[in-house]
């Protein structure tokens, strides 16, 4: 990736941070308090403790966007086929209830409205390792970083700097929700929105931020626990108020597992009493085994030439962990024996978990723990994925009364959205806008596993600010 302009700008910012008086304990604590006040938190923990956003060259972001859009479109093809194909449904691990729900077509509109690809930046490029299609978090991180981190004095060159821009995934989300609602047949110019998730979750602060953003754009918006929803056969409601559009953050498997298929949200979805995004048809997309379909040559006929090229370059070798043989680097091998012999080359992931739960890195596990996990995983839904070595970066933080640099792993996780294409019938394409930037001292960088975040600043190398330039 191109790094000259971004490296020069990062060095300039770090030099400003190192200047006397640029950062002290009181300023750093005020920075954390601003995050707590605005909602840049996981539970009560401020998420941004590093003192520089991630800088990326415009051409590098464009390359990521092209690949992310192809991969997301390829995964949508997997989902569409798995809904109606017994073999592929089994391959991705759909339960009977999930498949029955996914088969329901709730009217026109996109299969999925918003998703987030988890991406590792490597020395040789980048790799996509998971897709969060059910309830992707982090959409408000960028705007909250701009209201907190980017207001610190040492980052003045990033404010109103020529050749710099920041993405707006929260605006892309609202645009995608509106377009999906209109294509579905919604008639309200400003539909009433319910953001639906369990009230006790650590992500509630993000939902409040989104509700405020939607309300500011003219939508009557409320955050609703699934147990507050009612459906009378004609309309979906909560607290006596009509709901036109549901931004669904409750995870499908948890809703079904806790409340069953007769829940008011599912009934309203089936009866077309409200537009629900993401739809319940995206469940195959959220299975980690969908990446096994992408990377297995057996299924290459599902994809376009452009999608196959993106898969070959950016998807690690991935397989469902089952007893049997698999092709590995030009030879046929027993899959279980391969994993035992090549422990440091693989990671094991449960097919249905999220937030880093149950992930086992072969290169950090003891041989005994790895053997036990491989033997157990052969009898439960799980994938094995080839290791990709993420690039690390040095990021400034404040600790022990002074600014210091810390070596961190970082993920760049692109958001993708369904956007309408002009034509006589509702047609949608996939577009990337922004990314969640996760930072962590460990290779499992999920926020729910203790990771943090920073913002994204896109740099046009020919126009980026130089040291000594004047900024407003």
UniProtKB/TrEMBL annotation:
It comes from the Bacteria. This is Glutathionylspermidine synthase pre-ATP-grasp-like domain-containing protein. It comes from Sorangium cellulosum (strain So ce56) (Polyangium cellulosum (strain So ce56)).
């Amino acid at each position: 990736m191109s790094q000259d302009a971004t490296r020069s700008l990062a060095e300039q910012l770090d030099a400003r941070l190192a200047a006397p008086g640029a950062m002290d304990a009181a300023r750093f604590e005020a920075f954390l308090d601003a995050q707590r006040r605005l909602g840049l938190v996981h539970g009560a923990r401020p998420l941004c403790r590093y003192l520089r956003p991630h800088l990326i060259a415009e051409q590098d972001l464009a390359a990521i966007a092209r690949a992310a859009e192809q991969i997301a479109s390829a995964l949508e093809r997997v989902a569409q086929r798995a809904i109606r194909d017994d073999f592929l449904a089994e391959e991705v691990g759909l339960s009977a209830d999930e498949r029955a729900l996914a088969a329901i077509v709730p009217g026109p509109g996109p299969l999925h409205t918003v998703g987030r690809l988890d991406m590792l930046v490597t020395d040789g490029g980048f790799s996509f390792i998971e897709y969060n299609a059910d309830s992707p978090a982090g959409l408000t991180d960028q705007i909250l970083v701009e209201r907190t981190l980017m207001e610190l004095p040492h980052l003045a060159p990033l404010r109103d700097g020529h050749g710099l821009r920041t993405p707006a995934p929260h605006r892309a989300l609202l645009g995608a929700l509106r377009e999906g609602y209109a294509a579905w047949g919604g008639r309200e110019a400003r539909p009433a929105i319910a953001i639906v998730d369990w009230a006790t979750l650590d992500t509630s602060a993000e939902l409040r931020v989104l509700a405020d953003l939607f309300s500011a754009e003219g939508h009557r918006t409320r955050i609703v626990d699934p147990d507050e929803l009612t459906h009378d056969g004609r309309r979906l409601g909560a607290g006596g108020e009509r709901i036109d559009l549901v931004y669904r953050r409750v995870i499908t498997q948890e809703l079904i597992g806790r409340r069953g298929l007769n829940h008011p949200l599912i009934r309203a979805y089936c009866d077309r009493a409200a537009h629900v995004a993401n739809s319940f048809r995206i469940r195959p997309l959220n299975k980690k085994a969908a990446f096994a379909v992408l990377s297995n040559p057996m299924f290459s006929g599902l994809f376009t030439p452009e999608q196959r090229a993106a898969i070959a370059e950016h998807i690690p070798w991935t397989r469902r962990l089952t007893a049997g043989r698999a092709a590995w680097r030009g030879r046929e091998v027993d899959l279980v024996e391969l994993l035992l012999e090549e422990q440091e080359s693989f990671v094991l992931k449960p097919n249905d978990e999220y937030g880093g739960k149950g992930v086992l890195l072969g290169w950090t596990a003891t041989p005994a723990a790895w053997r036990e996990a491989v033997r157990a995983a052969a009898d439960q839904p799980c994938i094995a994925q080839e290791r990709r070595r993420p690039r690390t970066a040095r990021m400034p933080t404040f600790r022990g009364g002074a600014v210091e640099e810390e070596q961190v792993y970082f993920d760049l996780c692109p958001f993708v959205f369904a956007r309408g294409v002009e034509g006589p019938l509702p047609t949608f394409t996939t577009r990337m806008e922004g990314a969640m930037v996760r930072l962590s001292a460990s290779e499992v960088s999920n926020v729910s596993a203790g990771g943090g975040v920073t913002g994204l600043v896109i740099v046009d190398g020919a126009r980026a600010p130089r040291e000594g330039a004047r900024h407003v």
